[in-house]
Structure formats: structure tokens, C-alpha cells
Amino acid sequence: MIIIVTIVLGFFVYIAYRLSFLTAGGAIASWLVGLFVWVSFQIEGIVLLCLFFITSSLLSKFKKKKKMKLKTIEDESKGREAGQVFANGGVAFIASAGHLIVPHPFWIGLLVASLAEATADTWASEIGVLSRRKPFHLLRLRQVESGISGAVSIPGSIAALTGAFVMGVAGTEFLFDHWWPLSILFTTAGFFGNIVDTFLGGSVQVAYRCPICKIETETTIHCNHPTKQIKGYEWLTNNVVNFLSSLAAGVLGGVAVLWM
To answer: Do residues 183 and 172 lie in contact, with contact meaning Cβ atoms separated by under 8 Å?
Structure first.
């Protein structure tokens, strides 16, 4: 069975790579995370993971040309890299490994809530940047350019709550036998993780300024020139913040399962 699973996953990540949803490194990382999730949580777990990946990938292509006009947005035209895959799916990988070693409902809660946060964050990012009004930075208390970490918009917040809800309900249906009170807790945990992501992104996450266009960005190269660090810690990149936020949501979801 494991051989069939390995081949099937390999086929799907290859298709994702060919469609430019993933880079080569991202495809390998996705295959590894998917394999662990499938072995640990069976078909229900992989369906949940695919729900996150497919919806997020499709949203990344939605009005892509308009998004790429925003100078603060990093170009992902070649697909998600390995670091981005582990940033959003790393906690799912940990939950799978933990459940294989010591099977326990806590790991299932960790999986569902972490994916609820990853979905909330991704949907918020992909939809929020399309807002007609500039987002409001929660720490600077003023409007800023779209795509700057720490800022929120009404469409982005609605998308975040919707994403957390969809994943929370799906996780409850697939892995907890329709125990609906947990779907509310998973939704709350996912949205909470998204808030953590917003505050970490706006405070301690590293950011740079382009010497050419003077825009704030998360990349070290902009307008074909090296950028200058203006805040945060160099090691605390967007990927690290995404991982920590999904971990916070996942732990909250795991505790909720124990509490229930």
C-alpha cells in the first residue's frame, strides 16, 4: 500500500510542479509532507491537506497580474518553494510524526487547527491585497501599501475567517465524526493564529526598503538592487512567522481536543 501511496502522491505533486504551483524543491517538500500525513491520518488527512493546497493555489492565480503590480509582493510565478511548503505544512508534518509515534487525538487537533490557520493566512493574503482601500496597519495605526505585513483589510479579514471556518468544519467532518462543537474551536484557533501572524509580521518580522523605489518589502533584492533592513530580526522571515503562527493555532486546537 505504501508503494501505491508514494506513486500517487508523486504523480500529483508532479502535476502541481508542471502547473507552476510548486517549484522542484516545493514539490519534493509537498510529497514528503503528504506522505507522512497519508500514512498517519489516512485518506481523511490527505484530503484535508489537499483542500488547503488546492484552494490556496487557485487563489494565488486569481487576478495574478493585478497582484504582481504591487511592488511589495514577492514574485511566486515559479510556484511555492520548499520553505513556503514547510512554513504552512511543517506543523502538519510534526502532527503526523507525533501521531505515528504516540497515537493521540491531540495530534489530530494539532493537524486540523494548524491547517485552519494556514488556510486563513493564505486566503487573507490572496484576497486582502485586492482590496480597493489600503489596508490598516494594526501597530502603526495608519493605512499602508497592500502586501505589507501587519496590515489588515475588511476583505482579507473576511477571507481569513472563512478559510479557518472551511478547514475547521472539514477537519471535524473528516477526522472527528461530525463533532460540530470542535469545528467552532478549530475555526477560532485558526483565526487566532492568523492574528498572531499579523502582529508578528508587523512587529518583529524582518522587512527591507528598496533604495530605488523606496517601497517596503520582504525581499533582499528589489528593482535588481540589494535592499536595506529597516526592522525585525534577519532570521525571522515570513516563512518563520507563518510556521510559528500555525504552530500556535495547532497547539490551541490540540488543547481544545483534550479539553473537549
So the answer is: yes
C-beta of residue 243 within 8 angstroms of C-beta of residue 118: no
Decide: helix, strand or coil at residue 225.
strand
Select from 140, 156, 152 the least CA-distant residue to 230: 140
> How many whole angstroms separate alpha carbon 163 and alpha carbon 26?
22
Cα(187)–Cα(78) distance, integer angstroms? 31
DSSP 218: S
Q: How far is CA 159 from the centre of its chain?
A: 13
What confidence tens digit (pLDDT) does each residue in 79-99 have? 789 999 999 999 999 999 999
Is residue 13 packed enough to be buried (19+ CB in 10 Å), middle (13-18) or exposed (0-12)?
Answer: buried
Read off the C-alpha cell for 30: 509537498
Query: In terms of DSSP bridges, do strands 221-222 and 225-226 run parallel, antiparallel, or are they unpaired?
Result: antiparallel
Residues 6+ apart with CB under 8 A from 50: none
- Phi-psi region for residue 102, left (φ > 0), alpha (ψ -120 to 50) or beta? beta
When mean pLDDT is compared across 32-46, 173-187, 231-245, the lowest value belongs to 173-187
Give the H or E element holding residue 16.
Answer: helix 2-18
